[in-house]
TrEMBL record, chains A, B:
Domain of life: Bacteria
Keyword Transcription: yes
InterPro entries: Bact_HTH_transcr_reg (IPR050679), Tscrpt_reg_HTH_GntR (IPR000524), UTRA (IPR011663)
Protein name, per record: GntR family transcriptional regulator
Limits of the HTH gntR-type domain: 17-85
Region ranges (Disordered): 113-137
UniProt xrefs under SMART domains: HTH_GNTR (SM00345), UTRA (SM00866)
Amino acid sequence: MPSLTSVLGVLDPTSDRAVFRQIADALREAIDKGRFREGDKLPSETELVDHFGVSRMTVRNALSLLQQEGLAVSEHGKGVFVRPRPPVRRLASDRFARRHREQGKAAFTVEAEAAGSRPEVDNLEVKEERPSQDISARLGSPRKVLARRRRYLLDGRPVEFATSYLPLDLARNTPIAQPNPGPGGIYARLEEMGHRLDHFDEEIRARMPSPAEVRTLQLASGVPVIHLVRTAFDAEGRAVEVCDTVMAADAYVLAYQLPAN
Amino acid sequence: MPSLTSVLGVLDPTSDRAVFRQIADALREAIDKGRFREGDKLPSETELVDHFGVSRMTVRNALSLLQQEGLAVSEHGKGVFVRPRPPVRRLASDRFARRHREQGKAAFTVEAEAAGSRPEVDNLEVKEERPSQDISARLGSPRKVLARRRRYLLDGRPVEFATSYLPLDLARNTPIAQPNPGPGGIYARLEEMGHRLDHFDEEIRARMPSPAEVRTLQLASGVPVIHLVRTAFDAEGRAVEVCDTVMAADAYVLAYQLPAN
DNA sequence: GACACGTACTCGTATAGACGAGTGGGCAAG
DNA sequence: CTTGCCCACTCGTCTATACGAGTACGTGTC
């Protein structure tokens, strides 16, 4: 195996760049050049201390930088590893087209199985509650809403946490208030109930996760979340559902098609 | 002014939660509750050291956590501040509709001025180059492409860095190869040249920025980027342009409208 | 008043040391 | 062979100290 010097080079003591940044640069470059590949173990803190002749805190600063950048993950007792790129789930903009609703299975399940992954849904919760100000405004200020919460996993890994909100007067005592709303999901039920869906508005933000989100999505540090809020409108222009979704950003690509006219 | 204890509480020595996490929790809670507001200065490291009775490194670990979460920013020589939420630029999915192209000014300029901000474009670069593998595949494998790079700023703050790629056979010796392609931008020129635009495909990812992106977008730590790749197709189904855009995630909300059928 | 300077405060960087805790392999006892 | 333990190695947390560098402000000089 090649010497650390040939892989990482040495420090430039004349540089005004902070030592821990130089070390981070060296590691980043080695990763970019493929000297360390996805899942590979980086040199241990002790090895880096010996190689660069610096204190351990300096090395840890460097490694911490790489983790903030999402390039590396540390595992207690094992080492620091080049962060593997998980398989990406692609969300196409036609995923809510009526033709997809008419089959039966949930969209998430169908797509995941087509991609060769094992889908799971957990943390199911359906309850009535008072809406937050934001949700309330989007739904036309209902006094109470039905909230449907669930978490989606691929091959055991949580990738998405979503909550649907529906005005209570619309959802109470319907299949939508059941844990399993039946084939085609709540959009199919809404249409059966006479709310022909017209269009969806989606708003997309990206940000760093809250500590709670880190827990429920088991996020590595340096992984942002995509926050998507979708509002469903029926043919009369009424907002009939708002779906608030937080996704692990390293697991998703969102795809949209826009007409040019 | 209230005592630090009433704002931040005290440590729980019996807790198994790491001290620096407890300190971060206390600060986070105080921020959430509005005890510290946007732009407010947090207690200095020294004050926190005195208040919690811990060493400075522990306090710095806590503050560093908040910065990674995007909740705080530090300024050398001044202090650590609650990160202000910059005004958000909203990108609607109809922003490339033909009717918007027919006026004249660049979309960015028009929107920014409408929102009361001062728009700027800089770092203009137009050159011919060999496409990367990804760009090449999206454009139908041209040997060379015209690359148009520019950076967008709002009120002096960089918010977006974009590169447009066009097959060279299509763009060479046209207004598109000029630094300023004229009213309506390159999409207007493409249509004048007979490439009637049919639709756009957009792919959206979110991730942490590279060090180079941190520089060009002057990103605070804890701010992800939104990476958007748009491909423009003409009526014959040919990909005539790919636009690769990196946006400061805290400056943008992307909005899309999807039909339900 | 304008300017230079010193000083106190801020965060940034780095060192050295200590102990805790998770992991995995080897070795010895059963 | 299996089980259980120990040990070596890993990263996690925390202390204590030191100096550098950017900022703000007051003070004294011109």
